Amino acid sequence: MNRDPYRKIATWYDLLVEAGVRGLRGIGMRIYPPKEGMIVLDVGCGTGSQLALYEQAGCKVFGIDSSPAMLKVAQEKLGESAELRLADASQIPYSDETFDLITAVLTLHEMPAPVREAVMKESKRVMKKDGRILIIDYHTGPLSFPKGWVENLIVMIYEMGAGREHYKNYRDFLARHGLPPLITQHKLTIAARKIVGGGNFVLYLLASE
Fold first, then answer.
1. In a domain, 57, yes or no
2. Torsional sign, CA 196, 125, 62, 5
3. Distances (CA, A) of 159 to 66, 99, 168, 171
4. For the chain, what is the domain count?
């Protein structure tokens, strides 16, 4: 594993970021409401805020992340009932058809293109045949005025502040038209889609063809 880029901010991450993401998480849960006993994997689980919502709904929760610092915060938040692993999302350490739902919240845009493709392939592999994948990430527009423009400026500032490599991958994600090509490439069908934030964000609920 590379040096942990979140080691200095993990304990502050929720304070800095969560307020802006909480609304997106809520929309995702309304698109595909959790059921008690559902088995959920969050890819790039960070501090565990996504999994906390599903845990509260009675789901069995699993998370993977490449940051030891973020996983430490997540484990403290979720307790021992959550299974969290330090892992590479391009090689998800679970068997085929394990999960009812796989979520990825503002995660794919951080990755280089080949890694993104591998993560989508792996997510489909570990999803049950009747399962779903919920992805929340950036949308390529068009942006509404003025809300979309203002939110886009905030997004740009945040992404630039996340570091050169992060920003490079973000720009590449947009240049490759975001999620639709990945969805098509991996032969997934769109069960639901919702564009929010003035055109800056999109939520996709995906199923196998």
1. yes
2. negative
3. 19, 31, 9, 9
4. 1
* 30 domain-assigned: yes
pLDDT in tens, 135-188: 999 999 999 999 999 999 999 998 998 889 999 999 999 999 999 999 999 999
For residue 199, is it left (φ>0), alpha (ψ between -120 and 50) or beta?
Answer: left
Q: Which residues pair with 20 in a beta bridge?
A: none
CB 57 within 8 A of CB 27: no
CATH at residue 196: 3.40.50.150
Owner of token pair 């890694």: 115
pTM of the predicted structure, to 2 decimals: 0.94
Which residue pairs, CB below 8 angstroms and at least 24 apart, start in 11-14? 11/69, 11/73, 13/46, 13/47, 13/70, 13/73, 14/47, 14/49, 14/73
- Residue in this structure with the two tokens 């720009």, named with its chain if needed: 171
- In angstroms, the Cα distances linking 142 to 174, 188, 197, 202 are 12, 24, 11, 12
Q: What letter would DSSP give residue 109?
A: G
| Nearest partner of 17 among 144, 113, 148, 161, judged by Cα | 161
